[in-house]
Amino acid sequence: MSITREFLRHPMLTGAIAPSSPRLAEEMTAGLGLERASCVAELGPGTGVFTEAVLALLRPEARFTAIEINPRFAARLRKCFPQVDVVTGSAEHLAVDDIDVVVSGLPWTAMTAARQVRILDAVTAALAPNGRFTTFAYAHAAWTPPARRFAALLRSRFAVVERTPVVWENLPPAFVYRAALPVTVGRSWRGQPAAAPA
Predict the structure, then answer these.
(1) Axis crossing angle, helix 49-57 with helix 22-29, rounded to the nearest 10
(2) Which of 123, 116, 117, 50 is nearest to 81 (CA)?
(3) Inter-residue contact 134 to 42 (CB < 8 Å)
(4) N or C: which end of the chain has fewer CB within 10 A?
(5) From CA 79, how far away is CA 4, in angstroms rounded?
(6) For residue 141, which of 107, 109, 115, 176 has the smallest C-alpha distance?
(7) Angle in degrees, CA 117, 153, 40, rounded to 5
(8) What's the pLDDT tens digit per position in 140-187?
(9) Interhelix angle for 113-126 vs 145-157, to 10°?
(10) CA–CA separation, 35 vs 58, rounded Å?
(11) Angle of CA points 38, 48, 148, to nearest 5°
(12) Longest distance between any two alpha carbons in the chain, whole Å
């Protein structure tokens, strides 16, 4: 099964025309404390490049849940990584609590504002108070409205957000967001998602 074929079949769901590089996977999993984590979730694992990098750092007893919307990718992940609990579904229905680290390969710029909000709210609700979140974005799209909106949403939901230098050894080149300490600023008092920035 080819990620290129899945991109051509479902471009809004797949989001990438080529698998992420090992170098990007290294940046995605660095500095998150995965070696000490008890519970980890991955959103949009696709072909499993980040999954493999996470597993290389996790303790054997750690719980690892991956949520993949594409059933073909989900079936492949179950076969390749039997130690991972693979759930077929949307990341906005993340149903794991007290997660130490969330790793995301989701195509944020292909989403509507409302979907970005729903998924980030699900992430912040599921993370432990000192939890960490990591995701990436393509450098060429960094100044598009969806990318800028996502960056603003991320900063409204985490006390700490950092952006790495561009990883040129990826197709296309990308950078990584690392966020820590989820906050409740993007929510109303009733727990409903606040409106996304324009």
Answers:
(1) 50
(2) 50
(3) no
(4) C
(5) 20
(6) 109
(7) 70
(8) 999 999 999 999 999 999 999 999 999 999 999 999 999 999 986 444
(9) 30
(10) 5
(11) 85
(12) 45
